[in-house]
Design goal:
4 helices; 205 residues; 6-stranded antiparallel barrel; 26% strand
């Protein structure tokens, strides 16, 4: 990991548990359900999921093909750094999420983003045609979007982290999304620290 260059604030390796209110997929179209190869042929739904973390809405992307999504349920989860969990693969997932999630303006681009996240999480080839993870029946246009993301991350020299939400009971699908919003007391402490830093800088002038 020493060879990686990271951009942006680091995500804490672990943190206190949070409450996840898992909703449903953000949408459905003719491209959202398709076949993949991951330990055999599987049918997956590639649309991300509407969720809330301690009441704050997010759009979550799956990073766990070994468990089903706990749709329309509430559960406790612990937060983790993707890099802490998965090293370079976690850094690639963070890079993809932070760069492309804000740009995914329609469902097809969100599906492509989800596919690129799966490829980066489970494979090192960054190629959707072979390896531990590959697509079988994904729409050609959507696959092209996803492969373009993977080509970008393959050429990247600066990476970033992202928050992983892992269910405490281990039986629900892990997702990634924005880090939890600090509690008011934590925000106040951050504000006090920032004000103290500003005062110190002024006193040095």
């Amino acid at each position: 990991m020493s060879a990686l260059t990271l951009a942006g604030a680091a995500v804490a390796a672990t943190a206190n548990s949070v409450t996840v209110d898992m909703g449903d997929h953000v949408g459905n179209n003719s491209n959202s359900t398709f076949l993949i190869n991951y330990g055999g042929t599987k049918t997956v739904k590639g649309a991300p999921i509407n969720a809330a973390i301690d009441g704050n809405p997010i759009v979550g992307y799956c990073v766990d093909l070994d468990h089903a999504a706990a749709l329309n349920t509430t559960y406790e989860a612990d937060t983790y750094s993707a890099i802490w969990l998965w090293n370079l693969q976690g850094a690639r997932v963070g890079y993809i999420y932070n760069k492309y999630a804000p740009l995914a303006g329609d469902l097809d681009h969100q599906i492509a983003l989800q596919v690129a996240i799966w490829e980066s999480r489970y494979d090192s080839t960054l190629n959707l045609n072979s390896g531990t993870f590959s697509t079988i029946s994904l729409n050609t246009t959507v696959k092209g979007y996803a492969q373009a993301i993977l080509d970008d991350v393959a050429a990247a020299s600066t990476f970033s982290d992202v928050c992983v939400y892992k269910g405490v009971n281990g039986d629900v699908q892990d997702i990634i999304g924005p880090a939890p919003v600090p509690e008011p007391a934590s925000m106040a402490a951050l504000g006090i620290g920032a004000m103290a830093l500003i005062r110190r800088r002024k006193n040095r002038k």
